[in-house]
Structure formats: C-alpha cells, structure tokens
Amino acid sequence: MAATKPDLYKILGVGKNATDEEIKKSYRKLARQYHPDTNQGDARAEERFKEVSAAYDVLSDPEKRKAYDRGTGPFAAGGGTTGGFDPNAFGGGSFRDIFSDLFGGGGGGGRGGAGPRTGTRPRAQRGRDLETEVSLTFQEAIDGTQASLAVPTSTRCETCHGSGARPGTAPTVCPVCHGRGVESQGQGLFSISTPCSRCSGTGTIIEDPCPTCGGSGARRTIKRLKVNIPAGVRDGSRVRIAGKGEVGANGGEPGDLFVVTRVADSPVFKHLGDRVEVEVPLTVPEALLGATVEVPTLRGSKKLRVAPGTKHGTVQRLRGEGAPRLGGRGRGDIHYRFVIDVPRDLTSDQRRAVDELAKTMNGNPRARLFSGRTEARA
Q1: What distance in Å separates the CA atoms of residue 342 and residue 307, rounded to the nearest whole number?
Q2: 334 has binding-site annotation
Q3: Is 94 annotated as a binding residue?
Q4: Quick check: 92 pLDDT over 50?
Q5: What is the CATH number of the domain that holds 291?
Q6: What CATH number corresponds to the domain at position 48?
Q7: Strand-strand pairing, 172-173 and 204-205
Q8: 221 assigned binding-site residue
C-alpha cells in the first residue's frame, strides 16, 4: 500500500491557512487534554499526545511547514508509514534541519549547525532545543520548587542506530549533490546554493528505510524529568535546562530544554516587574486619624503605620520584602496601596455622625477647580 501524507492540520484541528498563533493555541489545548500526566495508563491518549506534538513540530517551524505544504522533504510521505500517521517518524533528526541554512553545506546551519560536509560522512549536528510549559502557584513561583515534566522528544532509533536505513544496509551518497547536501547554480559572478532537490539537504539517500522509524533515524517518545524552578520566576519566564533537548545527529551534542512558567494569580499579591503590590483597605476614621494596621508580607506579616490624613491611593513601601530577584540578586520591595473603604449604606446613627462631621469640616475641596477660571475672567 502506498505511503500516505498525514494531514497535520487535521491532527491539530486547524485550517491550512491557520496563523502561527492559532496553531500554537490549538496545540496547547490538545497537549493539555492528552498530556500523559493527566491520562496516566491511557496508551491511546499518550499516542495522541505524540501525534499532536509531532504535528506541531512541523507546523510551528515556517520552513518545515512550507516544505510540508509543497509535499517535499523527508516528511512528505508520512515518514514511511502506510495508510496512517506514525508519530515516531517525526523527530528532531527526521528533518535534518534541511532549510535552516540556505547557503550552508548539508543543511546543518543555524545554532549548533554542522556546516559544509567533508567527503561523504555527515558531520555532527547539535540537537534541537525543546520548549515546554509548567503551571505554578504564586507561592511556588516566589519560593522556587521542583516540577515534574513530561516532554515529547525524540531518541535515536535502536533498530537502525540512528542511520535511518534498514539493518544490514546503509545510506548511499546522493548522486545529485555528491554528499554536499546542496546544489549550486551559477548566475554571473555569483553562485547560489540551495538544498539538494534529491536528498533534501541530507547528502545521503536511504534506499531501504528502517521499518521502525521510517527512515528518520529517530523515535518519538516522552521524556520524564524533574527540574528545579528557581525562586522569583514570573509568568512567562523561560528557565533553561542545558542538555535536555533533542538528541544530536551523527554524535552531536543534545539541545537544551526551555521551561516556560505559567504562574497563577494570587488573591492578595500582584507581581509588577521587580516589585510586589498589595491593596490595603482603610476605614474612613483610620484614613482621617491615622492608625497602625497589620499587613501581609511574603514571609508572614508586619505592622504598618498609617499617617493621619492618608489619601486614597497613597503608596507605602517596605524595602527588601518583595520577591527574590533571579540570579540571587537580593529581593525587591512590597508596595502597599491604601484604598479607603467607603460604606454604601449607613445606619441612621452613622448618618447623623457624618452630618455632624460635615458641619465641622471647613472649606470646599472643589473650589480650586474654578478659582483659576474666575481669575481669568476678571
């Protein structure tokens, strides 16, 4: 049966004209739905998680997406599967980074790329970086924590040992580019190099693909890790875990893993840049007469002196009581913003007391709004 091209757009539930943001949003939704941590023991959910991750791996990369839409590259025919989609055929090593360096040799440019080939032996390529998200409570973000992650990644195929060829066979040198991975075309004084149309920039041809990985040399799997999240991260912080990305091709070093933190809101504290802010309600008498009030900190509570005549919105600062700064550079401040709590409904006794207070208060605070205009007319 002929190999069929998987519909990656259908797997992610988006249209072919979907924007990058729509693709990312759909991936996040499906990844959360089928994540192994929330579907423990469900092999079907884990396989669906791999499919979604593999589809996103292609459609989130502009060059891979273009090649997929054109029907070119190693993934054009579904990674060697027949009649369906094998997520194991889609790994960091399956695409060879064929469009990452248009003018390099062998498509290994970019970060950690291989550069031009020498002879017929491909040079080592650094593994692809990975990115995942972790959900934290506000307090975990402040204090730091250890998080358990399940990261979709690829590992070297054990059947072909990463060569992509059926055991007992080996990849052959591409007859078009002679192992260089690029084709050169002369235009006047210049020569333009493009990825080889025959081997898609790999420099080799796999005549008899490995039945396990479909010729990619990699298997899709779930890597389970425990990582330390440092104290002081915010929503959207990126924590780098060195060497925990995709495996490198041809003996290259692995890529890195970037963990993006998603921090839940706190009902009390707001994280604003280097500072933490807290709203402190005051009664009308406390604002007028002054008071000593107890306020929360990130490490307990403290007493704060409120000056007489404090206005609504006044901010008072406690130095060094805020969130830890990343890199161990001390702590930020806490800003306490005083808001005067004015009751909506008054009892008859309260109303009489307010009326008596109003009689003793002198001046009209709005008079200055009109004083300038009156002087101008004169």
Answers
A1: 18
A2: no
A3: no
A4: no
A5: 2.60.260.20
A6: 1.10.287.110
A7: antiparallel
A8: no
